[in-house]
Every structure is written in C-alpha cells, then in structure tokens.
C-alpha cells in the first residue's frame, strides 16, 4: 500500500509517499480502507519534532491521526461494527490507503468521507477545552483564531450550550463566523479594544498561537480563565496549554449526535491527494483556514 512517511524531522519537504506493508487490526481495533484523512496542526508539529521531549518518536515515522473509510478488518473483542461499515475515527498513520483505528463511530447519514475525516480530533479538542476553561451557559467565550476546524466546532458547540461567543479571524472570514453564531471581529492592531466594545469576556481560548496570551489574560482578568492549544509558551503567563486528549469515543458519539441533529457542520476548505501532503502541511501551517483540510485516498 501507499502511505506518507518521513525519515527525518524538518520542513514539509521531508514527507515522502512510500510503499509499505499493510497494517492489521489488533485487539480492540478496526482497520479501514481509508477514503479521507484529516489534516491537523499536530501532524506538522510532530513532523517538525516539536513534541520530542514529551513524546519520543522513532524514525521513519508515519503521519496522520484522523480518518474516515470502510471497515475491512475487525480485531479481537470488537463488536457493534461489521466489515463494510462506513466509519470515522482516530488511529495512527492515517495518511495511507489502509489504517488502523482505535476509536470510531458510524458516519452519520448524508456525510461524505471527506467531511467525516475532518471531525474526530477537532471535536474532541473543542469539547475538552470548553470544559477545561469552565465557561457556562449565559457567559461569553472569546475565541482567538476562530475560523479553523477547532474554532468551527467550538463556536457551534458553545451555541448549542447557550454560551455566547466572540470570535476573531481575518477579514475574509467574518461572515463565516457570524454564520456559526459568533459575534465576529478582526484580529490585528486594535483588536483588544474592539473586543472590549463588544462586552464582557468570561473566558478565552487561544487556537492560533499568534502571541496573544497576555491580551487574553488581560481581557478575562484571570489566567485560569484562558486555555491555549497552540502556544507552547502559554504556561509562562500562568495559562494552561491543553495538549492531552480526553475520551475520543465520547467525542465521536457527541459529534455524530450533533451532526445528525443538524447542529454541527464543519466544511472542507480543500482536499489533497496523498502525493500532495507537503502542500497540505504548508497550507495548514499558514493558517487562515475556513473549516478543514483533508487528504483524499
């Protein structure tokens, strides 16, 4: 089979499309014929070697965590799923023709493989950080860098829970944020004052890592009311960096429920073939995403 791999840490040019042996489902796992794989910032952070101290990686290494596809192999102890089922979930080495998933759920009716591949990690992250920041119904959450995959999920989940959201994004994405129920404003010079004019901020999330931690603490008045998933220097300001995933099965079940009820939709901004993984990483790292980027197989 074909898969994307890298033999050294570095820029996107280290990615290679290589021939590899097919993986097989172990106990508690399923294997899928991959139809699409989600592109997440953690993918290129791992490729760059950013997490080596916390999570040593043996080279050569593969890429990708999220995928959607057709179940074609079921591991021991697994029930409730059959060969031929269309599922989305999380595993490893998902930029590939076949991948093993450790958590999955059936794809909701009407969802394409490309759309489904964009949900797992972003919904888990959104649910986790909304919970960690402690924002409650009736309060206001500020989301910095709100137009990407995680931001799109945060805005819709918050709206579903009765939490008001102020979202910052580029000028081109203002209408998109409003369509998801947020009060939108642009980042850049004067953004703090623009947010202040929109009202009280009870909690804040940094999703883009653009060096705004100090300002988010200023706006909320408490570093404990700020969470970052993108700025590794956040703890220097007393702000929690959230990088440890919670329960993926619960997140997938909640994603499926919200999608089925029409309360969560994350658009796919662009799809790439496996051979263009480097371009996908370049674009992901550049930011300014509206929704998700995915690999197609």
From TrEMBL:
GO cellular component, as recorded: cytoplasm
Gene3D superfamilies: Medium-chain alcohol dehydrogenases, catalytic domain (3.90.180.10), NAD(P)-binding Rossmann-like Domain (3.40.50.720)
Domain Enoyl reductase (ER): 10-295
Keywords: Cytoplasm, NADP, RNA-binding
CDD domains registered for this protein in UniProt: MDR_like_2 (cd05289)
Subcellular location: Cytoplasm
One annotated GO molecular function: zinc ion binding
Xref: PROSITE patterns: QOR_ZETA_CRYSTAL (PS01162)
Signal peptide interval: none
Any Pfam family matching the protein: ADH_N
Record field: transmembrane: none
Subunit structure, interactors included: Homotetramer.
PANTHER family named in the record: QUINONE OXIDOREDUCTASE (PTHR44154)
Protein name, per record: NADPH:quinone reductase
């Amino acid at each position: 089979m074909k898969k994307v791999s890298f033999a050294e840490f570095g820029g996107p040019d280290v990615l290679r499309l290589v021939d590899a042996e097919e993986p097989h489902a172990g106990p508690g796992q399923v294997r899928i014929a991959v139809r699409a794989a989600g592109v997440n910032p953690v993918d290129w952070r791992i490729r760059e070697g950013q997490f080596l101290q916390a999570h040593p990686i043996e080279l050569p290494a593969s890429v990708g965590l999220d995928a959607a596809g057709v179940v074609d192999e079921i591991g021991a102890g697994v029930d409730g799923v059959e060969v031929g089922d269309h599922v989305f979930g999380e595993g490893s080495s998902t930029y590939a023709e076949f991948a093993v998933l450790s958590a999955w759920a059936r794809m909701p009716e009407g969802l394409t493989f490309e759309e489904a591949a964009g949900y797992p990690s972003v919904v888990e992250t959104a649910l986790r950080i909304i919970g960690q920041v402690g924002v409650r119904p009736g309060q206001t959450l500020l989301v910095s860098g709100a137009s990407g995959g995680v931001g799109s999920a945060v805005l819709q989940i918050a709206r579903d829970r009765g939490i008001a959201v102020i979202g910052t994004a580029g000028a081109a994405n203002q209408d998109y944020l409003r369509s998801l129920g947020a009060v939108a404003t642009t980042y850049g010079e004067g953004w703090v004052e623009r947010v202040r004019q929109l009202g009280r901020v009870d909690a804040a999330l940094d999703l883009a890592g653009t060096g705004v931690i100090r300002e988010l603490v200023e706006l909320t008045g408490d570093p404990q009311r700020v969470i970052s998933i993108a700025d590794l220097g956040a703890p220097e300001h007393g702000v929690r960096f959230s990088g440890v995933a919670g329960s993926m099965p619960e997140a997938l079940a909640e994603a499926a429920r919200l999608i089925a009820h029409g309360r969560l939709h994350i658009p796919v901004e662009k799809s790439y073939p496996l051979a263009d993984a480097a371009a996908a990483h370049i674009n992901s790292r550049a930011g300014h995403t509206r929704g998700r980027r995915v690999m197609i197989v």
